[in-house]
Each structure stands twice: as structure tokens, then as C-alpha cells.
């Protein structure tokens, strides 16, 4: 669908819960709103105090500085406290300082994750309301056929990315973790990207194989800093990596039911699983990927993952895999605050991954 100015509706989205399938089915352009490590958050800090996760502060900064001025609408998921605070801050800015900033209209996408029937019913109602919202903004109905087509398109993109994840998990790897994370971000902003050319043989990466846990990463900078040591991040347990490429949506069921199911299904996360389950998942993932080590990187202000670390260490080391928890780093300055030297010392003690 097009705006009154004759261009396609542009819809930004924050958080893993927002279903891009509905945005695409509305004929709109989905744009994933991310932070930008190292760019500063001076304007955002006037509205969000420093205790808030730096990723959310950076997202707000980019919304305020005009990076996303093309957005007509912004959908914010509630899959984390920082995203929720971002949404309410945007609402407060528009209420208290109307017209001061060119901000898109913000709407919350409130979905539940616990594996209960009541959560599924609630989510179905919320997705139906989101469909109606997008119909109002796009100026026309969104038929089930359009949603099914968008589901099929995004599933195809995920399967291609899964092929890339297979290259990353190969022994030895033929793709870096930072490259895969960047491609996931592209797919979430443009589902029409053709990844076929990317699914091809690449030079081998012979360094140690690392599984990353802890914070969600919406930007590849931390991956780049760690992989500059010669290691390769072959897997992770956060929402923007392996979980995104492996979890498709049912193409046969009622489309809204299928989208609701995807929210409740998938790998364990802080939103729907206990510490023990998440620790076991991390350890099993490291074992399946034949990781030489597991590393936890947690941002300052993102306190939830720290509760997992003791149990994760126990589960990982019980499988004979070394575990390192890095000191918390600052999202706004990963180059200066991520303890890469500690990572280098850890990697130096690991066996080098060698092709069979």
C-alpha cells in the first residue's frame, strides 16, 4: 500500500516479537530499528536515564537524530524491559514535546511467551488488533492470502540463512559469526533480499570455535571485536542469531494462529523459560556445534542474562567445555569497554580447530 504522497508505507520494528509477515502483507516496507555502537547517546540520555540498557538508548538516539525519519509507523515489541521503556519514552516525548522531534507514530506489540493456552488466545487477539492497525495505515484490507504469501517469503529467507548458518557451523567454518549476524539484520529489514549467491563456499576459518551467550546483539560490532582474534562465533543463544534462522512459521495453519505459535515456541529464552532450561540449552548447543569454548558477553544495563551465568557455567563445564564470562561492557563504547584481552587469554588456552 502507498501513503497519500504516493510512496510505500514504511514501518519500523523493534524487538524479535514484531511479525514482519504482517508488515509485508500490508504492502509496507519493514525496517529494523537498531542501535549504533560507539555513536553516542547524548540526546537520548535527556529522556532515558543512564541505567537503561545502552541498546535502547542508542535506538532512541537514532530515532531522534533523523536516521529513521522515513518511518511512518513504529512497532515496538515488549520482549524486553528496555524495549518497553523505549515505547513509553517515545509516547511521553510526543505528549510533552509535540513537534520537537520528527518521530514516527509508535504502537506497542504486546505478546506473551509462557506456554499456556491463555497466552495463545491473548496473542491471537493482539495480532488481530495489529492487523487492523496496519489496515488503517495502509488504507486497505489485509487478506489471509497476503499473510500466507508473506509467511512463505520469510520462511524461504530463513531457510537460506540456515544454509549460511550451516557454513558457519561447518568444521572448519566457512563464514564468520559477524557476517551471519549482519545478514540476519538485512533479512529483517528487506525480506526480498536474494541470499542464494551468498550460500557458496568460502575460505576456511581454522581458529577456535566459540558459542556466544548473554546479551542479545542487534549489531555485529562485538562479534567483530572477538573474531578479530582469529576465533569464530559458530553459534549463539540470543534472538537475532541461530534462533531466527531455525524457527519458521507454519504455512498451513490459520496465519494469525501460526504467527502466535511462533512467539511461544522456539529455543528457551528469558521470556518463557527458567534458568536451568536455558543453561541446559546453551550447553547442548555448544556440544552439538563442537565448540571449543563458550563465552558470555553482557551489556551494562542488561541485567537479566547475568542471572543465568552461574548455572550456564556449571552446565557447560560439565560437558568438558571451557566457559568465560567477560566483564559487562558499554554498548555505546564496545571498542573501549569489551575486555578483548581476557578473551584472547581464554582463546590462547583452547585447542585450535583443525579440519579433519
Write the topology of this structure:
Blueprint: E1 10-14, H1 20-25, E2 29-32, H2 54-64, E3 73-77, H3 81-96, E4 105-109, H4 117-138, H5 144-169, H6 177-189, E5 209-214, H7 221-227, E6 232-236, H8 242-246, H9 255-264, H10 275-288, E7 293-297, H11 309-317, E8 323-325, H12 334-337, H13 340-348
Parallel strand pairs: 1-2, 1-3, 3-4, 5-6, 5-7, 7-8
Radius of gyration (CA) equals 20 Å
CATH architectural group of the largest domain: 3-Layer(aba) Sandwich
Report the biggest beta sheet as strand number plus sense, adding barrel if it closes: 4 strands, parallel
User: Which class best fits the helix and strand makeup?
Assistant: alpha/beta
- The low-pLDDT segments are none
Strand order of the largest sheet: 2-1-3-4
The CATH class of the largest domain is: Alpha Beta
Shape, principal axes of CA atoms:
globular
Q: How far is it from the N-terminal to the C-terminal residue, by CA?
A: 53 Å
| Order of H and E elements | EHEHEHEHHHEHEHHHEHEHH
Total strands: the figure is 8
CATH domain fold name of the largest domain = Rossmann fold
Fraction of residues in helix: 40-55%
* Structure annotation, total helices: 13
Strand content: 5-15%
Overall pLDDT confidence: 90
Return the domain count: 2
Amino acid at each position: 500500500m502507498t501513503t497519500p504522497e504516493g510512496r510505500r508505507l514504511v514501518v519500523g520494528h523493534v524487538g524479535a516479537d514484531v511479525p514482519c509477515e504482517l508488515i509485508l502483507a500490508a504492502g509496507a516496507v519493514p525496517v529494523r530499528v537498531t542501535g549504533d555502537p560507539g555513536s553516542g547517546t547524548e540526546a537520548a540520555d535527556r529522556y532515558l536515564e543512564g541505567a537503561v540498557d545502552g541498546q535502547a538508548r542508542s535506538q532512541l538516539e537514532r530515532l531522534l537524530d533523523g536516521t529513521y525519519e522515513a518511518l511512518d509507523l513504529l512497532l515496538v515489541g515488549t520482549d524486553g524491559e528496555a524495549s518497553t521503556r523505549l515505547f513509553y519514552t517515545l509516547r511521553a516525548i510526543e505528549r510533552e514535546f509535540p513537534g520537537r522531534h520528527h518521530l514516527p507514530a509508535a504502537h506497542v506489540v504486546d505478546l506473551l511467551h509462557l506456554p499456556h493456552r491463555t497466552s495463545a488466545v491473548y496473542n491471537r487477539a493482539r495480532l488481530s488488533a495489529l492487523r487492523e492497525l496496519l489496515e488503517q495505515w495502509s488504507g486497505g484490507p489485509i487478506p489471509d492470502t497476503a499473510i500466507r504469501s508473506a509467511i512463505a517469503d520469510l520462511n524461504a529467507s530463513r531457510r537460506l540463512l540456515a544454509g549460511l548458518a550451516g557454513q558457519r557451523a561447518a568444521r572448519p567454518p566457512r563464514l564468520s559469526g559477524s557476517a551471519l549476524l549482519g545478514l540476519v539484520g538485512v533479512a529483517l529489514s528487506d525480506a526480498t533480499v536474494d541470499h542464494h549467491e551468498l550460500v557458496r563456499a568460502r575460505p576456511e576459518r581454522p581458529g577456535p570455535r566459540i558459542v556466544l551467550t548473554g546479551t542479545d546483539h542487534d549489531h555485529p560490532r562485538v562479534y567483530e571485536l572477538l573474531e578479530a582474534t582469529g576465533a569464530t562465533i559458530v553459534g549463539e543463544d540470543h534472538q537475532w542469531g541461530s534462533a531466527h534462522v531455525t524457527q519458521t512459521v507454519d504455512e498451513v495453519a490459520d496465519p494469525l494462529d501460526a504467527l502466535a505459535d511462533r512467539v511461544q515456541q522456539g529455543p528457551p529464552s528469558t521470556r518463557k523459560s527458567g534458568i536451568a532450561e536455558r543453561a541446559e540449552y546453551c550447553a547442548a548447543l555448544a556440544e552439538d556445534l563442537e565448540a571449543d569454548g563458550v563465552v558470555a558477553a553482557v551489556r551494562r544495563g542488561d541485567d537479566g542474562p547475568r542471572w543465568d551465568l552461574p548455572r550456564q557455567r556449571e552446565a557447560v563445564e560439565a560437558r568438558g567445555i571451557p566457559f568465560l564470562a567477560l566483564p559487562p561492557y558499554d554498548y555505546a563504547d564496545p571498542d573501549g569497554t569489551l575486555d578483548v584481552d581476557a578473551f584472547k587469554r581464554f582463546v590462547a588456552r583452547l585447542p585450535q580447530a583443525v579440519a579433519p
